[in-house]
Amino acid sequence: MFMFRRLIDGFVDIIYPKTCVACKSKFTGASADNLICAKCWGKIKRNTPPFCHCCGRHLDKKSFSKNICPDCLRAKLHFDRAFSPCVYEGVIKELIQEFKYKNKDYLGSPLSKLMIQFIKEYRMPMDYLDYIVPVPLHKTKLREREFNQAELLSRHIANEFKKDLLTDLLYRHRHTKTQTELEIQQRLENVRNSFSVVKFRNIKGKNLLLVDDVLTTGATSSEAAATLKNAGANIVFVLTLAN
Known about the structure:
By secondary structure, the protein is α/β, with parallel strands linked by helices. Helix content is about 35%, strand content about 15%. Helix 5 packs across helix 7 (about 150-160). The chain is globular, with a radius of gyration of 18 Å.
């Protein structure tokens, strides 16, 4: 019954939207996929160069010459570089929470457009990447949420750039507690050894794009990247919707 009700609610929201998903106000003009009003879409804070060459965040003036932010100087992260089109605050934070926690899986379409636009604008080296890999959820969390937000975003990106999407490559075999209240070192310990690679996939020497919704400290993406590299991957870039 829950699944049926959710399906109907989602269908009605898409076909007959009455209010913006972000601000909940009635539509008065243009919108993104008839889901997000133009005013809210314009309020999404974008990441702008110069970027930290590790986590992809905007660099302040003190870090220009080093090309790396203070947080990344202190952390040992296993991915080669991360990119994010948006800053995790305000409208985009609200939209991601609606997307992940309130069953609005249809937001994957407009949100992925922000990532696709960023890839094209900053000429991310998609031609050199062999596969796209979404960060997986543990089966317990997937059962609760009923979809993996990283996989939905990945599908749109893979379709746009004609890349193979490996949804069965990376497996999350350990259920970890939420990272929200943890400090950086605690986050790293929390996700340690929580991923594995399915053995029948040969990724030796391959370049991969790891996709997730948010990069905070980079602990989850770093652990996933370390697992992929231990399985033979060459370069692992990370793309998240926001950081």
